[in-house]
Design brief:
The structure is a single chain. By secondary structure, the protein is an alpha+beta fold. The chain has one domain (4-118): 3-Layer(aba) Sandwich (Glutaredoxin), CATH 3.40.30. The chain is built from four helices and four strands. The strands form two sheets. A two-stranded parallel ribbon has the order 1-2. It has a two-stranded antiparallel ribbon with strand order 3-4. Strand 3 and strand 4 (94-98) form a beta hairpin. It starts with a helix and ends with a helix. Keywords: Oxidoreductase, Selenocysteine, Thyroid hormones biosynthesis.
Length: 119
């Protein structure tokens, strides 16, 4: 959520050259686990229903793109090394951009520079 506004600006600026998708994965900082003081109150997902419910919080922030939810076996998070967050660009089924792992290396501005090159 920390850089959601930057992400939303990417969606606005580059929706003519890219389709955006958010995959909501396992909560990295659940309030019943390792969390920050200012965290949104999301507990560790024990079921798909828990994960779907938590994703509703993101949807309320209107990410401006489709949001899907990872399976409880965390298949997408594992495949893309996405915990806690990561940006990717795929073209014709191949990864052409892989951003750093969040939160410290999650960099929407770096993705912006990449998208500007392919625009």
């Amino acid at each position: 959520m920390y850089k959601l506004e930057e992400f939303k600006q990417l969606v606005k600026d580059f929706s003519d050259v890219a389709d955006f998708l958010v995959i909501y994965i396992e909560e990295a900082h659940s309030t019943d686990g390792w969390s920050f003081e200012n965290n949104i109150d999301i507990k560790k997902h024990k079921s798909l229903e828990d994960r779907l419910s938590a994703a509703q919080i993101l949807l309320q922030k209107e990410p401006l793109c489709t949001v899907v939810v990872d399976e409880m076996n965390n298949a997408a998070a594992i495949k893309y090394g996405a915990l806690p967050e990561r940006l990717y660009v795929l073209q014709a089924g191949k990864v052409v951009y892989k951003g750093g792992r969040g939160p410290w290396d999650y960099n929407p501005m770096e993705l912006r520079a990449f998208l500007e090159k392919i625009k």
